[in-house]
Amino acid sequence: MFVQVHDGNGGDGCVAFHRELFKPYGPPSGGNGGRGGDVYILPTPHLTTLSSVLVRPRAQHGGAGQGTWQNGKNAPPLIIRVPLGTIVRELPADDPRRSKNEYEAEAEALHGLSPQERRAKMREKRWRHYPEYADDNAQREDFKHAERVLFAQERERRHMRRLRSENPIFLDLDKPEEAAEAADPNAPLGHRRVEPMGHLVARGGAGGLGNPAFLAPTNRSPKWATRGAEGERVSLSLELKLLADIGLVGMPNAGKSTLLRALTGGRARTEVAGYAFTTLNPIVAVVRVAEDGSFDGDAEGVIHDNTQVEEAHERALLDSGAFADTLTRNQLRAVEGAIEDPFAALEAFRFTVADNPGLIERASANVGLGHAFLRSMERSHALAYVVDLSAPDPWDELRVLQAELEQYKPGMSAQARMVVANKADLLAGGEGASQEEVEAAREKLRRLQAFVAEEMRVPVLDAAGAVVGERPLDVVPISAKHSMNLKRVVRLMRTYVEEARERKAASS
Ligand SMILES: Nc1nc2c(ncn2[C@@H]2O[C@H](COP(=O)(O)OP(=O)(O)OP(=O)(O)O)[C@@H](O)[C@H]2O)c(=O)[nH]1
Ligand SMILES: [Mg+2]
User: How far is ligand 2, taken at its centre, from the CA of residue 353, in Å?
Assistant: First the structure.
C-alpha cells in the first residue's frame, strides 16, 4: 500500500508587547510557536495486517505562540503502527505514485504568478505582522535583513532535504522494538522504561519565532514574527511480507501449486498448469489436520489436475444439469442437522503453507521472476523443497535451489526441513508397471536419498534454539496430482511447525 505521511506544521510565532500599569511601552513579548509533530513508524506484534494504517496520516500542528512570552505547545509525535514483517520504502522522485513534497507543493501554488504576487504570497506564508503594520514593516531595512536570513536558512533546509532523499528510507521491520531503560535510575515508578517510538520517517516543521527574537539595537519594538515551517511530506510504500509456517521452494513446474491444492482439498486458489511460471505471486493456504493425521480434503487417489482441465470439467457438469438439484448454502443451513463445516469437529491442528513462484538458477541475477518473492519466505518457520522426481537428475535441482537460497540470504537454506519428491506416479505408477520399472524407480529414490544424506544437512535445534547436531533433510516421495503419500508430508510438516512454535514460545 502507498502512504503519504504529512508532518505537523510548526506553530506560528506571536507579535505582542508587554502591558503593565505605569509601563506604557513594554518590551516585545510574543511567544515562539511549538514544533509540529514528527511521524514515526513502529513495528508491533499486535497487528497482522496493514489495514489499520491510514493512507494519509497527518501529525498535529504545533501550537501558536501567545502574548506574555507564552510559547506554543510542541505537538505530540504521530506513531504509525505496522505489523512485524513490514518493509517500508520511500518512493523515489520519478515514481508516478509519489505525491508532491512540501517544496513542490509550494512551487505549484506559486506557478504562473507575477514576481510581485509571488513575493507577496511567499511573505504572507512566512511572516506575521502587528495589526496594520504589514506595509510599514516591509519598508524597514531590518525586516529585509531578517527576511534574507530566513531565506538563507530555508535554502539550507532544502539542501539538507535533498541530500537526505539521495538515500531514501528503507526499513525492514522484522523485530519488535524493545522498550529502552530510562536514563534516570530514580525515575518514578512506572516511568523506568521509555516506550519505543520506532523509526523517524518525517520531521515536523519548526515553530515560528515570536517578535522578541527580532530585537536589535536599531529596533526596540519589532512588529513582526515568523510563521511555523511546514512539516515534511514523504511518500512511502508499505509492503507486508507474507507469513506462512511452511514455504514451498521448487523449480517451475515441479508441482508446488498442485501440492498446495492437494493439501487443502482443492481449496487453495492457485493456478496449476503444465508450463513454467504459472504462479506469479506467493499464495498462502491453511492446512487443517485431525488427530489421526488425516487432513481436510484428504482423499487417497483424488486427482488434482491442471486447473483449466478441472474448470472445464466442472463447467461441463454444470451445463449437463448435474448440479440442478443441489441445495444452496442457505437451504443447507435450514436443513436440520446439516453441519456447516464437517471438518471443524475433527480439526486438531492447523498451519499455513505458502506456494511460491518457481525459483531457477541465477534467479539472484534477476533471471526468471528474480527472487524478490523469497522475501516473503524469509519468515517461514520451515521450507520444503519440491522437486520433480521424474526429471533425469532431481539432485541437480536440489543443488541449484539450495545455492539460490544461499545467494539470496546466507544461512537461509538452514531453514529447509524436507525434500518432497513429487510426480512419483510417473515413475512406475499405475497398475501395469513392470518389475524393472518399479526397481528403477526405487533405485532413483535411493540415489536421491543418498545425495540428500551426503550433501544436504541442516542443523538440529533444541527448544532454546541452540544448535545441538546435524541431520539430513527428510525425503518423501509423493504424487501431488494423485494425492498419494500426502499424510506423511502433513505429519512431518506438523512436527516442524510444532517445534518452531515451541522455540518461539520459549524465546519470548
Ligand atoms: N503426473 C503428475 N503430474 C503432476 C504432479 N504434480 C503436478 N503435476 C503436473 O505438473 C504441472 C505443473 O504443476 P504446477 O503445480 O503448476 O507446478 P508449479 O511448481 O506450481 O509451477 P510454477 O507455478 O510454474 O512454478 C501440471 O501440469 C501438473 O498437473 C504429479 O504428482 N504427477
Ligand atoms: Mg505454481
Answer: 13
